[in-house]
Amino acid sequence: MKVPIIPNNEVNRLNELYSFKVLDSFKEKDYDYITHLASQICRTKYALITLIDKDRQWFKSKCGLSIQETHRDVSFCGHAIVENEEVFIVEDARESNIFFDNPLVINNPNIVFYAGIPLLSENGFALGTLCVFHDDLVKLSEEQLYSLKGLANQVMNLLNLRKSNLILNEQSKLLISKNNNLEDFFKIFEDLIVVTDLNLNIINSNVSWSKNFVDEELINPAQNFLDYINNGDKNDIKVQIEKVLKLRISDNFVCKVKNKKNSLKEIIWRIYFLDNNYYFYGRDVTKQKNIESNLLKLLNLSKTQNERLQNFAYIVSHNLRSHSTNISSLVHLIGEKYSVKENKFFKMLLMSSDNMIETTNNLSEVALLYDSNINEIKKFIIKKIIKKSIDTFQFQLKQSNIKVYLDVKESIKIYGFAEYLDSVFQNLISNAIKYSRDSNQKFLKIVSSDEDDYIKISFEDNGLGIDLERYKDKIFGMYKTFHFTENSRGLGLFITKNQMEAMGGWIEVESEVNKGSKFNLYFKKEDD
Amino acid sequence: MIKKICIIDDDPILVFTLKYQIDMINSDIEITLFSNGKEAFDFFSDKTKKVQFPDIIFLDINMPVWDAWDFLNEWKKYEFANHSLIYILSSSINPKDSQNIKKYIFVKSFLTKPINLENLKLILSE
Hints:
The longest helix of chain A has 52 residues, at 286-337. Chain A is elongated and about 160 Å long. In chain A, α10 crosses α12 and α12 (418-434) packs antiparallel against α14. In chain A, the strands form four sheets. Chain A has a six-stranded antiparallel β-sheet with strand order 3-2-1-6-5-4. The two termini of chain A are 94 Å apart. Chain A is an alpha+beta fold. Helix content of chain A is 43%, strand content 22%. Chain A has four domains: 10-167, 2-Layer Sandwich (Beta-Lactamase); 192-284, PAS domain (Beta-Lactamase, 2-Layer Sandwich), CATH 3.30.450; 292-373; 374-524, Histidine kinase-like ATPase, C-terminal domain (Heat Shock Protein 90). Chain B is α/β, with parallel strands linked by helices. Chain B is 36% helix and 21% strand. Chain B is built from five helices and five strands; from the N terminus they run βαβαβαβαβα. In chain B, α4 (95-100) links the parallel β4 (85-90) and β5 (107-112). In chain B, α2 (37-44) packs parallel to α3. The longest helix of chain B is centred in the N-terminal third of the chain and has 14 residues, at 12-25. Chain B is globular. In chain B, 33% of the residues are buried. The mean pLDDT of chain B is 86. The chains are: A alpha+beta, B alpha/beta.
């Protein structure tokens, strides 16, 4: 006995067969009619629809035979599908060198005659056959063969139909589960969806809308969308509807809607136009709007407070100053006119009036920091300005025996305001003088370095230093002094910090008591 | 030699102290007083009188009716603007104010109150 050859395309052929999901399926009348007809037409005892699985042939329908499957090795149909012919005929199996010792020939059903039509799928794979066989010799006429081929064609149609149904079923299952997902989502969807007809009568809406805006206890809740809209906003809807009719989609627009409890909610709407219906999509922004309006109120409040403060600063810088200069002038004149210069009370009065001028000067300086009408920011060669500031203090530096080291490149340019630069450098130099510590080698090192978008200039001394643990938060504050030195007025670093920030830079400090201080200034290289 | 000085300021104490200081330096100097810019301008621009222009005008910035800028903007239109040197007197230390005076060539400089006696001596001896 020769076993059937395995076709070259076996793996693909099997995949194709499995895609029909027909192996081991239930008996079906449609197929049984066909095998019945085939055996009738060909006048054979047996007719089968066989499908060739990996190791077996399985019968989708059988006529005259009771077994459901056989091994592939003994199958006639296994040969039929590899012969690549329209019809595979064995006229007398007993005489055939392939089949003479086949158990199906020797034993029941004692096959003598066999004719099989391969069942070819659309992709050209032979899945099995429609076959007829008999335990005696049979001669098939052309007409009988023609009919048999027609029936085989019908089997293939049935199989294809089966496959299409399978695909459809799967798709509809997928669709249903997708729909369920969407439905579930719309149940918890907090935004509003309202569908209306061209007259704005509501024809559908989501849960969020009906729950919050439609009073279901009313027998006749309003049917028209406009009935829910705040009177003042109805016109907005009409304007947007006109837009929608032209462009199919509206702008985002806010209009208020009365909810069930009759309170107005601010909703951002957008309207879409589809199949002669309007789709209103809305989001409740009442909370955000409240926050916004509170912020606006706060902003206005701080604006007026700021204006009041600026007014106050102006009064300090101008009016208060004129009074104190008058007092000072008068005191000085008294000193000229009357012989009181050595009088203790007069000396104190003179000192107080001078201090008062100093204080009002400082306050005006601080007030000016916040004046928005400062001069234009410009580029400066930094070394020139530092040198100028050092020169201003030449005398005091010599007197205090402080050696200045200036290590700043000639080429470095930074952005700033001329007055502020002078003020910042002079303040740091004067601090180094005021707060120097007795030592043989007092110094002030001024060094520049490059830090990405910024130029760093550091002023390092070996003076008294500042207890940073204690004063960290206060060092750049207003009226903070950390030493009992004459002339320390506690405004310098406050002004310096603000001036640095006004120029788009900042100041940092490193310091240790009885070692010294290092102030790092950061200047912008380029204007934004 | 300075013979005539004009002070335009609405603050009587400032006027008193400045006048006193000038007297101390040279009591021969003739001093004219105005309490705002308009008053002074009307006086000097009056064509019906023969007006003698002062050598120096001390001009306050903030005054009622016409402030220093109102005064200067009118003053610069006239030929007599060059007859007197003007010193701006200010209680303000706003650098912007000192920038503004550069627009007027007949304004000599910007003085911050109070004027000390030594400075005043320098100004009068120029």
